Amino acid sequence: MKPALEINHLQKSFAGTKAVDDLSLSIEPGEIFGLLGPNGAGKSTTINMISGVCRIDSGTVRIFGHDAVKDYRLTRRLVGVMHQEIVTDHFFTIDRALKIHAGYYGVRSDNSWRELLIERLGLGPHLHKSMMKLSGGLKRRFMVAKALIHKPQLLILDEPTAGVDVELRRALWDFVREMNQAGTTVLLTTHYLEEAEQMCGRIAIMSGGKLVALERTADLLARLDSRSMLLHLNAPLDQVPTALEPLQGQLEENGQLLRISLAGEVAMAEVLQTLAQLDLPIRDIELPRPGLEEVFLDLTGLQLTDRKGSSS
Ligand SMILES: Nc1ncnc2c1ncn2[C@@H]1O[C@H](COP(=O)(O)OP(=O)(O)OP(=O)(O)O)[C@@H](O)[C@H]1O
């Protein structure tokens, strides 16, 4: 079977600055694939080239085997995109806007599909409200419906849950999973890393227009062997006890937090024994699980996303 999306040596510059730099990747039918990267990494530009919104400088994009430039009429129907910016037809009602978009793709008559989208995205009570009167969350739900109205085989979601409350985020992701189980391939970007970990079977990470990693999510997370143990102390320490130096002990938060490294073949029983012998004033012990943020930091020395923005 042909890949749902095949990108080869894709390039795009704006005023001499490379926004996408020799990007190649392939997504199989049925995948939920995450494209991550810090602000300005080139994710939206990539999506805009896939969907034909932005001209390709060089390289190719193939969608289910069809060239996105030469066969754009066909590929445009195969892809549904929810763009990052809320671009809506301000004066139209949801009902009218959905009908126009269905007409645009020649699927105006598929009422049952339209009804299903309206029902599953909770748009029913708002159908006759004009766009400009809708809340941000409702606009997002409308945009998901708009991206799916022509039953695309590849659904692309660029930050679908940015600024959306937790409940709606869950509902949107449940719906995306449902679409995926029904056969739709999904490419998504998000700054909520926990969502990417939960949703995506594979993840590509971009930085400065280039691909810096592309692996199964589990493999990407398993890359990091450098787990830490955080010891929260009741009373501050002046210096790291000598016995903890081999574990790269470090004091933080004015001596009230002691971080030790559990990298490599460190035996937990020995660590606990050493700690017991030291009789430290330990209030709490934390074993943070390394996530995509740490993987990216390890790969590039950069922060993948604003930490405040990555919590769910
Ligand atoms: N139309 C444009 N004109 C000029 N520069 C642009 C244009 N679109 C994007 N860029 C630049 O290209 C680079 C990549 O931007 P892009 O929006 O693709 O990144 P991104 O990974 O989607 O970031 P974010 O997470 O903030 O959405 C940035 O340096 C951006 O300023």
Verbal overview:
With 312 residues, this protein is an alpha/beta fold. The protein has two domains: 5-221, P-loop containing nucleotide triphosphate hydrolases (Rossmann fold); 224-300, Alpha-Beta Plaits (2-Layer Sandwich), CATH 3.30.70.100. Helices cover 33% and strands 26% of the residues. A six-stranded mixed beta sheet has the order 6-7-8-3-9-10, with helices on both faces. Strand 4 (58-63) and strand 5 (66-67) form a beta hairpin. Mean pLDDT is 89; it is low at 307-312. The chain binds adenosine-5'-triphosphate (ATP). The site of adenosine-5'-triphosphate has 11 residues, from helix 1.
Biggest sheet, in brief?
6 strands, mixed
Distance between the termini: 36 Å
Would you tell me which CATH topology of the largest domain applies? Rossmann fold
- Low-confidence residue ranges: 307-312
Structural class label: alpha/beta
Text of the CATH class of the largest domain: Alpha Beta
Bin the helical content.
Answer: 25-40%
Shape: elongated
**CATH homologous superfamily assignment of the largest domain:** P-loop containing nucleotide triphosphate hydrolases
Strand content: 25-35%
- Order of neighbouring strands in the sheet with most strands: 6-7-8-3-9-10
Secondary-structure element sequence? Answer: EEEHEEHEHHHEHEHEEHEEEHEHH
Instruction: Summarize model confidence as the mean pLDDT.
Output: 89
In DSSP terms (H or I, runs of 4 or more residues), the helix count works out at 11
Supply Rg. 24 Å
Provide the number of structural domains: 2
Count of distinct strands: 14
